[in-house]
């Protein structure tokens, strides 16, 4: 299993796998509900629409596919990318999907390197955003997307028009991770320059730089109340920062390999991070103490997700595991 996600109601899980399929699972019984087939290579990314009725998937076959959860049937293919699609996400209202493609070709004439916005209802291409090669995230209100890139910048785009609103400059190396605050007013970014930066969305100005990591910052996330940012780094540590002051609140250590990604629990009291050391660890935000260490995977953990009520955790690696918290 490469990718996993909870349905918004927490009752169903979708997984993507190297066997070219998606599978829907019942959380209560752990039974397979249905298998979605159509992609030709491995399925790397899966995502539920906000209403839970549709699943989006991406694969090495250069397509994004939309699936009906109730029947398991393929609704439509979003075609147009000429290279591997690296990420896909729904807008908060579920009406738009954004996809990102990155070229592996050395031939400049055949490179894609675009962000594309698609209409979910019709499958039509709404607009194409060019100039960035990194991941893209919707703002909470769905009106703006932020993209990151190897060119050391972030860009804010208007979803309705596709126009570039502003470029955020300051990092001295490639930008590895990006996240919006819950209120949409701030963006956090992590970089190979070993720093985390906080940006004002309205002006594009840098609010503060967070120093302390000794290696690339590959993951950042805001707490649900927006007061704290967590960062995960290749220095094998996790750090919690106060958004208002930029001060370091906690440094969490224990992994024996780089931290792949980080996430807050829905109530903001727990932070989870997973690593190439094949473990998932849960930490108490208030005290900084390790709550649980989830072992059992025999390969690097690729994806982790909390259920909406925070009672379960999904981890995707060689197999998908469902943990009761």
Key features?
325 residues, mainly beta, Methylamine Dehydrogenase, Chain H, 2 domains, four-stranded antiparallel sheet
**What distance lies between the first and last C-alpha atoms, to the nearest angstrom?**
21 Å
CATH homologous superfamily label of the largest domain: YVTN repeat-like/Quinoprotein amine dehydrogenase
Overall tally of structural domains: 2
Structural class by helix and strand composition: mainly beta
Note poorly predicted spans.
105-110
CATH topology of the largest domain: Methylamine Dehydrogenase, Chain H
Helix content: under 10%
Strand content: over 45%
The CATH level-2 architecture of the largest domain is identified as 7 Propeller
CATH class of the largest domain: Mainly Beta
Main sheet summary: 4 strands, antiparallel
Q: What Rg, in angstroms, do the CA atoms define?
A: 19 Å
Average pLDDT reading: 88
Question: How are the SSEs ordered, and which strands pair?
Answer:
Layout: E1 3-6, E2 12-16, E3 21-26, E4 32-37, E5 43-48, E6 54-59, E7 64-68, E8 74-78, E9 85-90, E10 96-101, E11 114-119, E12 125-130, E13 136-138, E14 144-148, E15 153-158, E16 164-169, E17 175-180, E18 186-191, E19 196-200, E20 206-210, E21 217-222, E22 228-233, E23 237-242, E24 248-253, E25 259-264, E26 270-275, E27 280-284, E28 290-294, E29 303-306, E30 312-316, E31 320-324
Antiparallel strand pairs: 1-2, 2-3, 3-4, 5-6, 6-7, 7-8, 9-10, 10-11, 11-12, 13-14, 14-15, 15-16, 17-18, 18-19, 19-20, 21-22, 22-23, 23-24, 25-26, 26-27, 27-28, 29-30, 30-31
